[in-house]
# Entry
Amino acid sequence: MKKFKFAVIGTGFWANYQIPAWLELDNVELVAVYNRTQAKAEALAQKYGIPSVYDSVEQLLEQEELDFVDIITDVDTHAIFTTLAASKGVAVICQKPMAPALDTAGKMVKVCEAAGVPLFIHENWRWQTPLRKLKSLLNEGIIGKVFKARVTFCSAFPVFDNQPFLADLEQFILTDIGSHILDTCRFLFGEVSTLYCQTASINPLIKGEDVANVMMSMQNGITCYAEMSYASVLEHESFPQTYVLVEGAAGSIQLTSNYEIRITTRNGTSSITADPPVYSWADPDYLLIHSSIVDCNREILASLTDGTVSENAGASNFETVKLVHASYASAKENKLIDMPSFYAG
Ligand code: 89V
# Structure
């Protein structure tokens, strides 16, 4: 079996989970790691037995024979590192959000297409076990024709403790969580026709908005309401769970706390749980997210192996990036956004 050789670019909070998630898979070999501060790269190399360490991405790409890079740096460096890898013919996996601006994200997709290298965005939310199970139940048609849905991520978890840079983002909740939740809406219900968004800034200690409510009319006629917040002090803290209620002509499906999925038809309600796999390296507070990284990585590797179109393809995730920026435009101008005409590139 081919072993894919890869390098990790960036050694921050998520690298400590991205790397062990890769090492759960048999057909990869981590050969190099980069951080602009050599000592930080050395520390991670020590922790995971990575043979080569660099403080220059150019040098890393020059000296290493790679099948792909996993870019886990801050969003402002995603485009430059993607462009460098593409120029060397190296496939790119890049953390969400793809880029701070829509144009930049669009250029990343075009640069990789022009270089003939695959671009994947590591958008792992849709790979969470409960959401995959919910999607398979929807596909079975148990509740009939779906007409509306609510997707909820409302929390007061102190996310800034582990990721302090989030507090300095001028655009926060839609960039950080909207990238996940709006992608989940696409995964569950398809593409968006029109969108209307309202945001709020509640926490005085952070720069960006920490509440966003997005009302979407999907192209298939479903009305989807997505609410997200890191300002929600609720009786039961749900981080990092996403709750979903889907209503169809013949019933409803509710993903609720502790991965319980409740299916209601006119004959009554049944319940199952869709527990995520447990990995020793996962942070218990983030187990649901960390476990999804493995399945996301696995699907990307399958695409690299046989060329199948990945759910995580850059061109597909670009549709999610468009939803994030359309939400900002809607909230700023207080207007409904027509998605098909929102961005022409
Ligand atoms: O996974 C992430 O993108 C994180 C979190 C969801 C924890 O806010 O930033």
Summary: The chain is about 35% helix and 25% strand.
